[in-house]
Amino acid sequence: MDNQILKVNGLTMDFGGIRALNSLDLDVNRGEIVALIGPNGAGKTTFFNCITGIYAPTEGEVYLASPGSDTKVSLKGLKPNQVTEKGLARTFQNIRLFAKMTVLENVMIGRHCRTKATVLGAVFRNRTTRDEEQSILETSYDILEKVGLEQYVNEFANNLPYGAQRRLEVARALATEPLLLLLDEPAAGMNPQETIELEKLIKEISSEGQSILLIEHDMTLVMSLSDRIFVMDYGKKIAEGTPVEIRENPAVIKAYLGEDVDA
Amino acid sequence: MDYFIELLFSGLTRGSIYALIALGYTMVYGIIGLINFAHGEIYMIGAFTAFIVATVLSIYGFPLLAIIVIAGVAAAVWSSAYGYTIEKIAYKPLRHAPRLSPLISAIGMSIFLQNYVLLAQTSDFLPFPELIPDFEFMEPVAHIVGSSDLVILITTTVVMLILTYIIKFTRVGKAMRATAQDRTMAMLVGINVNQIISATFIIGSALAAIGGLLIASHIGQINFYIGFIAGIKAFTAAVLGGIGSIPGAVLGSLVLGLTESFATGYVSSDYEDVFAFSLLVLILIFKPSGLLGKAETKKV
Amino acid sequence: MLLIKELKKALGVALWFIFLTFPIMVIKVDPIERIIRYRWENAAYVAIVAFTAYLVMSFFKMRKLRVTADKKEVKKSQNVIYSILNNKKQLTVLSFAILAIAIIFPHFFSVYQTNVMTTALMYVVLGLGLNIVVGMAGLLDLGFVAFYAVGAYSYALLNYHFGLGFWVVLPIGGALAAIFGIILGFPVLRLRGDYLAIVTLGFGEIIRLILENWGEFSQGPSGISNISRPGFFGMDFSLETSIMYMYYIMVIGVIVTIFIVNRLQDSRLGRAWIALREDEIACQAMGIDKRKTKLAAFSLGAFWAGLIGVVFAAKTTFINPASFTFLESAIILSIVVLGGMGSIIGVILGAFILILMPEYLRALSEFRMLAFGGVMVAMMVFRPQGMIANIRRTYKFEKQE
Predict the structure, then answer these.
(1) Looking at residues B32-42, what average pLDDT do you find?
(2) Which residues lie below 8 Å from residue A203, measured CB to CB, with a gap of 6+?
(3) Class of residue C73 by CB neighbours under 10 A (exposed 0-12, middle 13-18, buried 19+)
(4) 3-class DSSP assignment, residue B56
């Protein structure tokens, strides 16, 4: 039985003359938390953008497991929304919530690709549409409860405190029922207390079997969460392994040049 | 063959006037990313100011040369004043608003100015005094190329050269280019961005005013509505050349002027404006970056 | 001290505006009779308006600074309308009261008034239709009038050539407009917001110019006349009755539109529109098909414009291309902007204010378009959310044990 959920082969991305990603290989197994780290500008977010269809990679293949079958589907050439439909959902480094919508509605948007009510359904509100709407509401509320935002249900998203906004991003992505959840610097800008809560949240989500790939700069968080770590620099993978292996890898220490990796 | 040359010159004349207006669009777009919908109205106000000043002076019996110079300067001064004021009222407060807000504000400003001129002056077409005399040396070719075509072409060329000099070599020009590239960075290196934006509006408006003066005396009549069509066409030209690019605006204007001239000359004059609008729609759909523009990359 | 400083500034602003408006406001020349008129009184008006406007603005600016310092005050000062909107019972009572007034209206007012009210109701529906496109989905459509023209011309032509009646063409006109919306939307909806605005503007003008120039098809600028009024099971109406009939058709039209738009707003699709308006990239990343969603909004908006186009042709019994200029699009847009983008109640109020005010204040009617332009600028600068901001639906959850 193939245990891989994501398989990336030789992913390359050129912007004009600049090679932002250079033949990158990466894989995530079912139920794992994998971290992607590297100095600023190493190409981590570009990697996310490439596999989620926001950028079209110059070369390389991205495969995602498909539920209920052993074969993987290629994500090449799919639009971002199709990628999400296939089961890859993400958060954004620079928070991109729907500011003028309520917290609950933000999560409800995540349910969009798993539901199908049409214009006619919306106007006539037949049985199926009503039931579907009810299930959207319930699922969304449950997810908000899980990330601990239930007290903000009817607030506008941009009125939330910073840490809560980051968690809402996670909640919104979870609502799409992803096979693999991509977190782009979920702890960026958080204070230590918020980071600890976030760590708890990610562990909890992971314990329910959710596979996670995250980009993060907070090494304490990365070391304590990850099963495996990939290290990037200048668009290339320079190391991969368990947290212990990475900690001792000379190439990684060199890439971070004097940065205290053990911190 | 004569007909071809006639169309060629009329196309170039049209094109160079579009260029004077298109530059205002492109400069403003380059610097604040706004389609200054009211720019056509600036041009219309320039034409009206020139009309009013020229008529007053001619009633008081000023010599023709004095009328041309004073009317030209007045048109440029007042258009610039309008451009400056509009930016302060309708766009500056919206600098950090969502992208569509300043555009809606600009559309409102355009409607407001049209009706302001309509109410303060008249809705009728007004005969514009003939400022450009028929030169004697042009007589042999007058049936193909009019004197005013010649004057328009020369004036536009001179204005373009001055503009190129300003943008390439003066402090203001350099600051403009810097601001267009990266506003935050420009601010950090000590450029007064508000001043530069104002300067852009002033220069763009003055160019439009010159265009207004030239076209009004070329066509011989004006009304409050001339800004709308001219504005759209100049915008088309700016987009055709690649909005934000100054040489692009000139190139796009000439291409548009020639296309219109030949299309109306050889195909049909009924659909004159349809050609321009169709061209606009087609470029935006198929090559929104235009001939000389750079494609935008989205940041995530 | 502050006051004197502000007064000085206001004086400066007034002087600047006297200078600015001098050639156009003060001088008026007659180039043929060679007469110059100096209208100095206009300079005085300009000065007074600029002076007061500046003072009023700086007053509000200062008050706003004080209010934001104390956030609680903001909540208290929220007006009555919101509290009614949030109270279901009051809202129902109010709706029925308005409905009752609407029903008896033509029996108490003249035919002329009824006709004016019908026009206002048409703009309510047009505004609500455009509100789907601009307010909810955030697509600035400056060529909305093109779809209105498609509806009007489909009724006029089908009626002229084939004698088809109002009720038959009503759905056809709407559908044709929606199809036009899809055909246009397909290539243009991938464009960025401001380009989309200009392309739709260009498209609107192209449609108008074609109607004007393609005489064999549309009878050119002279237009089509003698279009049938709507019938009612073959009955013939007097002019008066048919105006009243038209009015009731529009009352029902408005009710149906409000009902549908209201349901759309809180549906899966409506949420997708708003999300799209807020952040396109995040929206796609949440699995929403950008193109399909935009196309749905665009063609639904067009559908309503088409319907009202048919009504317009039936109401005036005469149409020509001059009714479908860019200004018409701009009027509908200013209704949406004034009312509040995305807000249904706001758009309804906006339509009544902008359409009825110039009708009843005859003296002001020549300033109509001036005011429309001014309103658009002022709203963007001072109150971008419109008169009545869109409020999102709130949900209550019971804790399950």
Answers:
(1) 92
(2) A225
(3) exposed
(4) helix
Say whether residue A15 is in contact with chain B using an 8 A CB cutoff.
yes
Tens digits of per-residue pLDDT, A129-151? 899 999 999 999 999 999 999 89
d(CA A260, CA C221): 78
The alpha carbon of residue C326 is apart from the nearest alpha carbon of chain A, in Å, by: 29
Domain ranges of chain C: 2-76, 109-382
Mean pLDDT of B189-211: 93
CATH of the domain at B226: 1.10.3470
DSSP C398: P
Which chains reach chain B with 3 or more Cβ–Cβ distances below 8 angstroms?
A: A, C
CA–CA separation, A217 and A259 (whole Å)? 12
Task: Please tell me the predicted confidence (pLDDT) of residue A27.
Answer: 92
As for how many domains chain B has, the answer is 1
B296 in a domain, yes or no? no
In the structure encoding, which two tokens stand for residue C94, read together?
A: 């109010």
Nearest-by-Cβ selection for C392 from A102, A114, A123: A102
The domain over range C109-382 is classified in CATH as 1.20.120: no
Q: Which residues contact C253 (CB under 8 A, 6 or more apart)?
A: C121, C125, C307, C308, C311
d(CA A42, CA C98) in angstroms, rounded, equals 63
Sheet of strand A72-74, all strands in order from the earlier edge strand to the far edge: A18-29, A4-15, A59-65, A72-74
Task: Tell me the domain boundaries of chain A.
Answer: 1-87+178-263, 96-176
Residue of B42, B49, B279, B284 to mutate when probing chain C, most C C-beta within 10 A: B284
- Residue B195: inside a domain, yes or no? yes
Give residue-wise pLDDT tens across range C132-149: 999 999 999 999 999 999
pLDDT at residue number B22: 93
Minimal CA separation from A25 to chain B, in Å:
22
Output the average pLDDT for chain C: 87
CB < 8 Å to C399, chain A: none
Would you list the DSSP string of A22-66? EEEEEEEETT-EEEEE-STTSSHHHHHHHHTTSS--SEEEEEEE-
Give B146's strand partners: none
pLDDT-derived band at C80, boundaries 50, 70, 90: low
* Residue ranges making up the domain that contains B122: 2-286
In a domain, B251, yes or no: yes
A212, exposed or middle or buried, with CB in 10 Å at 0-12, 13-18, 19+? buried
CATH number of A1-87+178-263: 3.40.50.300
* Residue B297 domain-assigned (yes or no): no
Task: Note the pTM of the prediction, 2 decimals.
Answer: 0.88
Give yes or no for residue C2 having a pLDDT over 80. Answer: no
pLDDT of res. C233: 67
pLDDT band, very low/low/confident/very high, at B135 (cuts 50, 70, 90): confident
Contact C387, C349 (CB under 8 A): yes
| The predicted structure's pLDDT at residue B41 | 95
pLDDT at position A261 is 45
Per-residue pLDDT at C144: 94
Mean pLDDT for the stretch of residues A189-214:
92
**pLDDT given at position C74:** 43
Alpha carbon distance C30, C47 (integer Å): 25
ipTM tops 0.85: yes
Instruction: Kindly indicate the confidence band of residue B181, based on its pLDDT and cuts at 50, 70 and 90.
Output: confident
Nearest chain C Cα distance for residue A261, angstroms: 33
User: Is B300 touching C (CB cutoff 8 A)?
Assistant: yes
Closest CA to B86 of B39, B119, B46: B39
